[in-house]
Amino acid sequence: METSNPLHRRTFLQTTGAGLGAILASRTAPAFAQGTKLNILRWVDFIPACDVELKRQAGDASKALGAEVQFEFINGNDLQPRITAAVQSQAGPDVIMMLHNWPHLYANALVDVTDLADWQGKDQGGYYNQAQAAAHVGKQWLALPHGIVGLQIAYRKSWLNEVGASAFPKTYEDLRQLGMKLKKKGHPIGQTLGHTFGDAPAWCYPLLWNYGGAETDKNGTTALDSKGTVESVKFMQAFWKDACDEGGFAWDDTNNNRAFLAGEISATLNGASIYIAAKRGQDKIKDDKGEPMVRDIDHAPIPAGPAGSVAYHVAFSHAVMKYGKNQKLAKDFLKWLHGKEQFSKWFQVAEGFSVGSTKYWEQHPLWTTIDAPMKIYRQAAASSRMFGYAGPPSAKATEAYSKYVIVDMYAKACQGMKAEDAVKWAAGELKKIYG
Amino acid sequence: MKKPISGGAGSAANVVALPRSGTSAGPAGLTRFLESERLLAAMLLTPTISLLGVFIAYPFVMGVWLSLSDTSVGNIGHFVGLKNFVKAWNDSIFRTAFWNTSFYTFWATIFKLTLGMWLAVLLNRNFRGKRLVRSSMLLPFIVPTVLSTFAWRWMFDPTFSVLNWLLYRGGFITTKLPFLSDGVYGMWCAIVVNTWRGMPFFAITLLAGLQTISSDLHEAASLDGANGWKRFWHVTWPLLKPVTVVVVVFSIIQTFSDFQLIYVLTGGGPANSTHLLATYAYQIGVATGLLGEGAAISLFMLPILFIVVWVQLRYLRRLEGA
Amino acid sequence: MVLERPWKKWVFFYLPLTVFIIGTLFPFYWMLITAIRPDAELYRSWRAATNTPFWTLAPTLEHFRDLMAKTSFPTWLWNTFFIAVVATIISLFCGLLAGYALARLKFPMAGTLGTSIFVTYLVPPTLLFIPLADIIRNFRLGNTPWALILTYPTFLIPFCTWLLMGYFKTIPKELEECARIDGATRFGAMVRIIFPIAVPGILSAGIFAFTLSWNEFIYALIFLSSPEQKTVPVGVVSELIRGDIYFWGQLMAGALLGSIPVAVVYSFFVEYYVTGLTGSVKG
Fold this sequence. Notes:
The complex is a heterotrimer. Chain A is built from 18 helices and twelve strands. Chain A is an alpha/beta fold. In chain A, helix 9 (199-210) crosses helix 10 and helix 16 (395-402) crosses helix 18. Chain C is an all-alpha fold.
């Protein structure tokens, strides 16, 4: 008995296996065992309709793939902890959304998706640098680029006019001058310097770069403590005092949206979500004259500093997790979701909040019908740079981001630390990270 | 609380008369087995020890190993000795977190104790609606911290704070107070919320302590003026001391390793100025994925807690011995 | 009885008590008022003349409806309840037996064991959760309620043991010894004589353990992943904080509804709770 049992079992399995295979081969649906589930973890989208659309697509995908596809949406600031927990416990979602250049940090836990990425790139007109920098690690693609969320400065046209500005300032210094007038009128500029994943780095990194500062040199050794960095910090101190809402220290990515929509601030760096929320809630969100606020909102790019006007736009990608048991299914699903047909549906719901990772999407008909203030997002993704500049966007760069070193450098300075000391502190932190 | 295990005076005589396992013939094997104090104790302790062994002792050892390695998320670690501890010690954010944790624990405990004691004395009196008031006073303690802290965060919101509105309308301020957007304010806000949440536990436990004090002292404890205060200080307080020490011990343990409150209220910000050791360990270990360093930061808490608690328990024993 | 002058009673009793009541309950009022406030009012400037922070002109149940219909809130509520109850039962069982052994039986290492059980309470959860993740993987408990049901006792048992140990010490030894002279076995005396007397202590420990489980956040955040497995605190934090705007209305509605079950438990048992604690603090 003891010895014959396994044999029996094996023969049994072989026969059944072959039988099932034969049955499945005759059908068109892909061969995934009954009841197979595929879990995808994403952030809670700033455009709630996008998540609704994904949930709808999950239904379609379930039918197309013959497996149950299920999305989970959590607060963006909780994503990294969840990834750590999932990787350490080797259990969790099959596919996880990655922000920024996270794939570098979690490289050993992600499945190589080079085949998919090559297909998508060819199919859709080639990637933006930002998308590639985010997900291309070494010689492999470790995540499949999804969308890019462009960040621009949303501002109130009428309030700018009131203080005599006909257009949004082109340089940081002009922005400070304008902000000073606005703040005097009780309409400060809002900017977060808190620990939050989107708006804080998207303001701080470009500020650093545009004043000629950089985290590292081309070889990847730290080079933060430079004249440019100190200049940028000094600007930020003055800008903060003269033009900003001091509450910004405690803001996360949602506070500026709320403050803007409540008419508390005149301008803020953000995704298009403020505009879109104001548009979709026209009957509730009014300006001081009782008109729908959306008519008073426009967007402008990040101003220029002495060294340029690079921006930071947030790259999103989907990674297949190595611990997952359904990696094949996960890849099939991503191919389905990222294909022109499905992505186009989601892209339209996003209304320009998320743009594509490839140039193909600049040609989408959406851009011809979209509201004028939204047009600026069309090619935004092209002018972006990744963390770690001027070195490679390595895992070290992600670590520095996750520890908010650059953000805290500005925050500390704005809280009263001397600019030079704040830079020295941050440079020391970077040295600890880069070794 | 901690009396010698041997129990009261009456027991000694009786123990002799009791049948001892091995000498007396029990009705069945199992019963005889259970008559042995050692075996019974072993049996009674098995569930606890095995559960705690698997889910605390083993993870603890693993955690110590983590703290001595350079493990990061998805990467197997190698032994690096005390490097993580040295790194933490030289880290300015760690020092801030360390200082904050002590500051937070100290003040929150003081407030909880004084206010809790006061409330206990008030609740110990007879008045109409006593039951209702007692149970509603417990509300802050029983509502999940995360949820109530969100309510507070909403009250402290940089843009929509109702407290700012009150102060503004009352003419006390002309600009908003930076409740959570300033490190110092942020720390005090956290202390206020912690006090609000923890005070009822103090009050109820001390109330239980007050009720063990004979009832003719009840009225004395109502704090009605100087006379009452004196009576409280000389009569009630000495009797309450042991209970107080125990509550304080528990409160210190909880406050010192607090995580949820700061996580929700400030997330350690602005610029790391309100991090506690637990939130900083989480930020480094779980959010950034440097598991070794995170474990080292957590481990710093243990000896400190141990010393504080040990000193207090010794004091408690001396109180009871006296 | 000490005779009080009325004004004294007002100044030293009613006044402070009222302040305590207001201070304690205001956040709950604030939760309620936020939960029934329509969105349009929620995003009004704090300086706006029409701002009426303490009441609302158009109360609405919309947030509660959305919470129940559009999120998995009812499931979270059930999960939390189930996990808290089972974890409490396990911890009470262990704590009861261990507490009795430590308080009443003589055996080598009793003191050391008691101390080490207490010391486990000091180990910070932030140190434990990564290794615990390993164990949960090995037991294949990931993303099931059992991941929490088995880890919660790690902080519940030490507390229950400690509390019940204190309580057992207040019960006179003679009770047990009389029973034993009457022929009861040691085990029988424990179960039939001592445990029933200890009911207030047990209830009190149980209520406390239930509260701690209901309140737990870190382990639940890390060990559970799918939306239908989450507990209330985790579900509210991770899914009701929506990118664009905090859904403050729903968030506060969730906070209120998430608190009610525990509040109900307490309102029934508060007197027991106090009596139970009374017993154990007397020791």
